Amino acid sequence: MMPPMETRHVERNGNSVAAACAAGAVRPRTGTPASVRTVEAEALLGPSGLLRIDLDGEIYTLRLTRNHRLILTK
Predict the structure, then answer these.
(1) Whether domain 15-73 has CATH 2.10.70.10
(2) Counting beta carbons within 10 angstroms of the beta carbon of residue 51, is it exposed (0 to 12), middle (13 to 18) or buried (19 or more)?
(3) What is the DSSP letter of 14?
(4) Residue ranges covered by each domain of the chain
(5) Which residues face 73 on adjacent strands?
(6) What are the tens digits of pLDDT across the range 3-17?
(7) How many of the other CB atoms lie within 10 Å of CB of 40?
(8) End-to-end Cα, the chain, rounded Å
(9) pLDDT digit string, tens, across residues 28-40
């Protein structure tokens, strides 16, 4: 089970991603281009372990399994 944490609403315009950057949840990876970001899974999924992603009207669900793996489903 994941520890409780602050949840954030990820907006389309990216403002919440900027807030996650400021909070240290997003950090650059060594050896990768500056435009590629690393985001802590817990910062995106929150305490529920679920994230719904809207891509051109299609809803995808990203979830964390009991084995600490990520599954993306349509």
Answers:
(1) yes
(2) middle
(3) S
(4) 15-73
(5) 61
(6) 444 444 444 444 455
(7) 14
(8) 24
(9) 556 666 778 899 9
